[in-house]
Write a structure and sequence with these properties.
This protein has nine helices and 15 strands. With about 350 residues, the protein is an alpha+beta fold. The protein binds 2,5-anhydro-1,6-di-O-phosphono-D-mannitol and magnesium ion. Magnesium ion binds next to β3 and α8.
Length: about 350
């Protein structure tokens, strides 16, 4: 029997991929690869719980006990704890920061500190869980700036262009991990039968021809005139043959993931002055910067409407920014509309 062999035959685990990427940097020590692997393992544990989300009513929710008398945690709390417990003792991190915590999360005194900081949104879009809609984990990794000892706030407040790695995990109809260390964007699908993330989407590039625009159009009346005109432009009010379909899940990772693969733009603009969302809703460190890093690595672009997201120097852990992310031309066009109204 002759077996046909082609590239498609190759099965690449995420672990192997981390180390293959690492080998392109002769000075690398393996700490980053191991840290990424710890994130992947956290994701598998979280995925094993998101698939059981609908059972919370039966088995108990936070503050209640389940039928076995165990305290059951809400999924976002569970995701937060899982990532923390996987990473607090490894000696790879100087500190962590989570969207769920107000300040930086120090490494306990009894464990060594390391050279990176891990910034994460443990379960973005968690309000969607009750409706069985995809949710995601977003992560960002920086090299620490301080020399040694406990990590500092400044180690976490770094701009996106200084990211060492970033990625997300989408808990959807299947679980996927998508990441970049600055050498392209690569996607892995979890095979739940063997518990491994396997390379399924090597070298993702945003398609040149966009399909979708994604925005919460229910808030349109609160946007500036330029934003309204831009949205009309995307819908077909242009002479460039662009006429996009609207898709909006309201779960950032899922919206971003779809547009990364299909082409398009996601935006969450600022609302009028005095509004609670006058500076947007999404957070620079936990959401905008890591996804901007991925978008640029996939040939796209992300902006706050005026400047690249990756150039913004953060001033606070929970700082919010307007976000326009996706195909470069579409994001540039949004900047143009916003510039014109100034
Ligand atoms: P969260 O961090 O509290 O989960 O909120 C972020 C979510 C994103 O996933 C999503 O893009 C956005 O909020 C949706 O907001 P809205 O419901 O205003 O459209
Ligand atoms: Mg979030």
């Amino acid at each position: 029997m002759t077996v046909e062999r082609s590239f498609a035959d190759k099965i690449v685990t995420i672990e192997r991929h981390f180390f293959e990427q690492q080998s392109k940097f002769p000075e690398a020590t393996g700490v980053l690869s191991n840290l990424l692997y710890d994130v992947a393992v956290s994701a598998k544990i979280i995925a094993s719980h998101t698939t059981r989300a609908g059972l919370a009513e039966i088995l108990g929710t936070e503050g209640k006990e389940n039928m076995h008398g165990d305290e059951v945690q809400k999924l976002d709390t569970f995701a937060e704890r899982t990532i923390y417990r996987m990473n607090d003792h490894t000696g790879r991190l100087a500190a962590m920061a989570s969207e769920e915590e107000e300040g930086i999360i120090p490494i306990p005194d009894n464990y060594p500190t390391g050279k990176y900081v891990l910034i994460y949104d443990p379960l973005d879009g968690s309000s969607n869980i009750d409706f069985n809609v995809s949710v995601g984990t977003i992560f960002a990794i920086h090299r620490r700036k301080s020399k040694e000892g406990p990590g500092t706030l400044e180690d976490c407040l770094q701009k996106g262009s200084d990211l060492v790695a970033a990625g997300y995990i989408i808990y959807g109809s299947s679980t996927m991990m998508v990441y970049s260390t600055g050498q392209g964007v690569h996607g892995f699908t979890l095979d739940p039968r063997v518990g491994e993330f396997l390379l399924s989407h090597p070298n993702i590039r945003i398609p040149a021809k966009p399909k979708y625009y994604s925005v919460n159009q229910g808030y349109q009346h609160r946007w500036s005139e330029g934003m309204q005109r831009y949205t009309n432009w995307l819908q077909g009010d242009n002479d460039q043959g662009i006429s996009l379909s609207l898709r909006y899940i309201g779960s950032l990772v899922a919206d971003f993931h779809r547009n990364l693969l299909a082409g398009g733009i996601f935006y969450y603009p600022a609302e009028g002055k005095g509004s609670k969302k006058a500076s947007g809703k999404l957070r620079l460190l936990y959401e905008a910067a890591p996804l901007a890093f991925l978008a640029e690595q996939a040939g796209g672009y992300a902006s706050d409407g005026h400047n690249p997201i990756l150039d913004i120097e953060p001033t606070g852990l929970h700082q919010r920014v307007p976000l326009f992310i996706g195909n470069r031309d579409l994001v540039k066009k949004a900047e143009e509309f916003l510039r014109d109204e100034q």
